[in-house]
Specification:
single chain; alpha/beta; 242 residues
Length: 242
């Protein structure tokens, strides 16, 4: 048993759990007075910053200037670790909500928070139902000026390499008439690997790509757009921490 593991179990994990309980409780308190979800997003960002600090994660952001705070986007990052979420909440500073698989909404405490904050559940096992949800989300983006964050792989990569992308993010961007922003997260798997509870310090690089416009595109273009998002994230991943 290493010193790093003992610190993770005896120090980092309890602090992360405590922060999650405290910030989740604060979010629960402000929810009834937060019809737009902005206060709950602010609480989530504070929670995310605390987790990165407790983990000892050092994050370098490249391309933050490419995002305009009041523009709606579909944000598309790769997904390798549960710590992707704290990184994204802390450093992607647009008013976004998560588009997540419905199983997450069934988790006690977490599911209630996700729903109250305006995040959207997608039934991945029901293609027709998923399309309805995506169309409704596209409409919400137009009406409320929201951005949506979608993990196009559909879940965490088992290998750390990019998995095949689903075309839901591209479909949503086209329906909403908003740009897609490819994002590559490098190094976060070293902080919390998949299927591990051993949180340890590490260096993360968050690369924000150029927004890809979707004006004039029809839903039939979603396959080509999905391939472009994949290739741009792959290219940014290959840059590593450089």
């Amino acid at each position: 048993m290493t010193l790093s593991y003992l610190i993770a179990v005896l120090v980092r994990a309890p602090l992360i759990i405590l922060s999650t309980i405290v910030m989740g409780s604060i979010s629960l308190v402000v929810a009834p007075w937060d019809t737009e979800g902005r206060k709950q997003l602010a609480v989530a960002r504070a929670w995310a910053r605390s987790l990165l600090w407790f983990a000892g994660a050092k994050v370098r952001v490249v391309g933050a200037e490419k995002l305009a705070p009041h523009v709606s986007y579909v944000v598309c990052p790769n997904h390798v670790s549960y710590f992707d979420t704290p990184v994204l909440l802390t450093y992607v500073l647009v008013n976004f909500r998560f588009l997540a698989k419905k199983e997450l909404f069934a988790i006690p405490f977490l599911g209630g928070h996700l729903k109250r904050a305006g995040n959207i559940s997608v039934p991945l096992e029901d293609p027709r139902g998923a399309l309805k949800v995506l169309s409704a989300a596209g409409k919400a983006m137009k009406e409320r000026g929201l951005s949506m964050l979608v993990f196009p792989e559909g879940g965490r990569s088992e290998t750390g390499s990019l998995s095949e992308f689903k075309d839901g993010a591209a479909y949503l961007a086209i329906k909403g008439g908003v740009p897609v922003v490819p994002i590559a997260i490098v190094g976060v798997g070293d902080i919390l690997p998949i299927h591990s509870h051993h949180v340890k310090p590490g260096q993360v690089t968050l690369r924000i790509g150029d927004p890809i416009p979707t004006e004039g595109l029809t839903s039939s273009a979603r396959t080509e757009l999905t391939a472009r998002i994949y290739n741009e994230i792959l290219a940014m991943q290959r840059l590593g921490h450089s």
